[in-house]
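Appendix C: a fully annotated inverse folding record. The material below is reproduced so that readers can follow the format used throughout the book. The structure is listed first as tokens, followed by the designed sequence.
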């Protein structure tokens, strides 16, 4: 998961900036609406809704806005959001990199047109359904932050032995140590998509600071990107896709060195 973890870390940092711009709420609001509509409005009995609410709170979205999104999902504020549907799109980036996109939209034609324009302007192309989907597998990912040191100074390193024991107890398949922020250690723990709720609760019961819970598409193989121009074009494409209002997540099967990724994001 190394290459994907780098991109996921960049997205976490970007999400904080987007939250200030109001972009995050537009995306999370749709997720809350759909979760409330499909699984009920009580977070205690709706893991999908509970996860969306936690993501909203982590982004600093006010409770009133969250409550309003839940009410929309329940049909209490009109039925205009009943048309929201989840659609998966697939395509290729520069160099043939496979890209998988999840969207929530009320207008398929608009979303497809926006995606096609983003791809074509940055050296890629939107493909047919199924063209790259077979290269990915959906997993449940729990992201942990190292426990705070006394007086809140920094964060402790992750005890791998303890993490391994807790992860196995929760039914995890693997874990990877990462930096969840600059100089802040953490970990991403992976499990079968159907076991995500159990793993999350187990890690919380063990005292871990869970900062994100999500279903994520993980590539079965990766393409190594070493050319700076290709790297820059690819990351600009990923960024442009992420910025589209209808898009919920973007996953690709590339890997590149940290230095190249940092240079290309400038």
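Designed amino acids, in order:
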């Amino acid at each position: 998961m190394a290459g994907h973890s780098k991109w996921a870390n960049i997205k976490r940092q970007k999400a904080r900036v987007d939250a200030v711009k109001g972009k995050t709420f537009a995306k999370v609001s749709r997720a809350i609406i759909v979760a409330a509509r499909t699984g009920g409005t009580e977070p205690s009995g709706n893991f999908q809704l509970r996860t969306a609410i936690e993501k909203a709170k982590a982004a600093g979205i006010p409770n009133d806005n969250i409550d309003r999104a839940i009410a929309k999902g329940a049909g209490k504020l009109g039925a205009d959001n009943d048309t929201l549907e989840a659609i998966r799109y697939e395509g290729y980036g520069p160099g043939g990199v496979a890209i998988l996109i999840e969207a929530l939209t009320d207008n398929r034609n608009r979303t497809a047109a926006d995606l096609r324009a983003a791809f074509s302007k940055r050296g890629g192309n939107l493909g047919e359904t199924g063209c790259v989907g077979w290269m990915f597998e959906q997993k449940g990912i729990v992201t942990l932050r190292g426990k705070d040191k006394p007086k809140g100074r920094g964060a402790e390193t992750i005890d791998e032995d303890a993490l391994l024991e807790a992860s196995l107890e929760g039914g995890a398949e693997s874990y990877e140590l990462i930096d969840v922020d600059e100089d802040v250690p953490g970990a991403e723990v992976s499990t079968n998509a159907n076991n995500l709720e159990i793993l999350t609760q187990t890690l919380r019961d063990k005292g871990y600071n869970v900062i994100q819970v999500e279903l994520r598409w993980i590539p079965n193989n990766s393409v190594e990107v070493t050319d700076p121009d290709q790297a820059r074009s690819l990351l600009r494409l990923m960024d442009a896709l992420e910025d589209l209002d209808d898009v919920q997540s973007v996953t690709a099967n590339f890997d590149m060195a940290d230095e190249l990724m940092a240079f290309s994001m400038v």
